[in-house]
Amino acid sequence: MTSSDLWDEETAQRYDESSAEMFAPEVLDPAVDFLARLADGGPALEFAIGTGRVAVPLAARGVPVTGIELSAPMAAQLRRKVPAEQVPVVIGDMATTRVDGEFSLVYLVWNTIGNLRTQDEQVECFRNAARHLAPGGRFVIDVLVPPIRRFPPGQVAVPFDVSDRHVGFDTLDMVTQQATSHHYGRLEDGSVRYGQSNFRYVWPAECDLMARLAGLTLERRVADWTGAPFTSESERHVSVWRKDPDALEDSIRRGMRH
User: Fold this and answer.
1) C-beta separation of 114 from 206 below 8 A
2) Half-sphere exposure of 77 toward its Cβ, with a 13 Å CA cutoff?
3) What pLDDT is attached to residue 258?
4) Which residue has the higher pLDDT, 154 or 109?
5) Sheet containing 192-200, strands listed edge to edge, beginning at the edge strand earlier in sequence
6) Which CATH fold topology does 149-197 show?
7) pLDDT digits 0-9 by tens, 68-108
8) 242: left (phi over 0), alpha (psi -120 to 50) or beta
9) 223 SS3 class
């Protein structure tokens, strides 16, 4: 059982259209370049592969990609783009689902670590990544830095997009780290569609501790897929942890002592 929202058939069918800006070459190409370099010719595993926004072009670069996806309708949309032998997908949650083989790269993009809405599940996601990695392999996540500084006292929501066709804002609980993204989209007929998604926001330092528990060591943190420096002003981070066999053995020994 997982705490993640389960995306249904209707959401899956309109996902690519509603997320069109994330498919733009200036957004997608740097991510694919970054991941292809890290894979270095080895196989990659994408957690929450969705409709294949990243996996399909990464596979086209010659990287063997396998996916784990919670939503069968989302995976069905991917299957319309490429056959199973090109990008195989296992239906399941990214905290516990196992696939065969070892991977040079495991990756999780566009804030999706937050879909796991408990700290325990997020910790297990890091451990699941480590279980799938070959020695020296890397786990990559791309996630926002919680926008807490935008909240003046008494404010309960912060906007992340305001345009002619869409208004989006987040509500965040500072105690539980639970959050909801609210979306109001104007349709062609002038009506408005409302949608929401729930997530647990996570801090960069919290991610590093989760990685350490899984036997992973931080190798690099940048502000985006182009490699811009990560600073106190960065609104998101792309972080890379490396599977260090010695660190994993130390973590296991420490756990046994306790």
Assistant:
1) no
2) 21
3) 47
4) 109
5) 157-162, 166-172, 178-186, 192-200
6) N-terminal domain of TfIIb (2.20.25)
7) 999 999 999 999 999 999 999 999 999 999 999 999 999 99
8) beta
9) coil
Asked whether 130 and 108 are in contact (CB, 8 A), the reply is: no
- Quick check: helix, strand or coil at residue 10? helix
- 42 token code pair: 């080895």
CA dihedral over 73, 195, 198, 140, signed as positive or negative = positive
Q: Where along the chain do its domains lie?
A: 9-146+203-257, 149-197
Q: Which two tokens stand for residue 101?
A: 């083989």
Same fold, 9-146+203-257 and 149-197: no
Q: Tell me, what DSSP letter sits at residue 187?
A: -
Q: How many residues does the chain have?
A: 258
* Architecture of the domain spanning 9-146+203-257: 3-Layer(aba) Sandwich (3.40)
Backbone angles phi, psi at 229, to 5 degrees: -60, 140
